[in-house]
Design goal:
Chain lengths: 108, 115
């Protein structure tokens, strides 16, 4: 069985502070991991995927297979980063599992 | 731009009614998905399909069925709607290439209320 855990329902940080949204997974094979974001009144959209190893809107995420984690980080939070963030895993046969999401609130 | 459209943004149905939610994508994606999104529970996969006429159960298929007769269209059916199926329903599509899965593109969602 595959599982994704996002331990924080809500994360509040001040503007300019570093952000780390946690994601841990459980999967016996080689997972494909993604971060999705949902801004207020917008549809869910991809933020980044681990295989691309790129930085999007200042966010990065590194896959740590030893710790089975894929935490999302940004050095300096901006107000426009306030949104709902979901970690997702694609396992065998294209099955996708999402975490329960973390609401990021950036305080001005 | 990939477009995933859903037939309704808001829907109100009565308990026991049969409900059809339709999803259409225009980018020739092989994979299509239906989720429900509930506060505190995130997105939960109901069914998915990786080819025409193929379907796989997700994590919460009970009370739902699906149909995929054409590549671009994936329908979710609630055979007999119940109040605990009141939720936001999201459709998504994606493609796979050389064993890699690419990102999902989501529709705007259908907020279903069952009274």
């Amino acid at each position: 069985a595959q599982r994704v855990t996002q331990p924080e329902k809500l994360l509040s940080v001040f503007k300019g502070a570093p952000v780390e949204l946690k994601c841990n997974y459980s999967y016996s094979g080689s997972p494909e991991l993604f971060w999705y974001v949902q801004y207020s009144r917008q549809r869910l959209q991809l933020l980044l995927r681990h295989i691309s190893r790129e930085s999007i809107k200042g966010f990065t995420a590194d896959l740590n297979k030893g710790e089975t984690s894929f935490h999302l980080k940004k050095p300096f939070a901006q107000e426009e980063d306030s949104a709902m963030y979901y970690c997702a895993l694609t396992g065998g046969y294209q099955k996708v599992t999402f975490g329960t999401g973390t609401k990021l609130q950036v305080i001005p | 731009d990939v477009k995933v459209t859903q037939s309704s943004r808001y829907l109100v149905k009565r308990t026991g009614e049969k409900v059809f939610l339709e999803c259409v994508q225009d980018m020739d994606h092989e994979n299509m998905f239906w989720y429900r999104q509930d506060p505190g529970l995130g997105l939960r996969l109901i069914y998915f399909s990786y080819d025409v006429k193929m379907k796989e159960k997700g994590d919460i298929p009970e009370g739902y069925s699906v149909s995929r007769e054409k590549k671009e269209r994936f329908s979710l059916i609630l055979e007999s709607a119940s109040t605990n199926q009141t939720s936001m329903y999201l459709c998504a599509s994606s493609f796979s290439l050389a064993g890699l899965t690419y990102e999902q593109y989501f529709g705007p969602g259908t907020r279903l209320t069952v009274t």
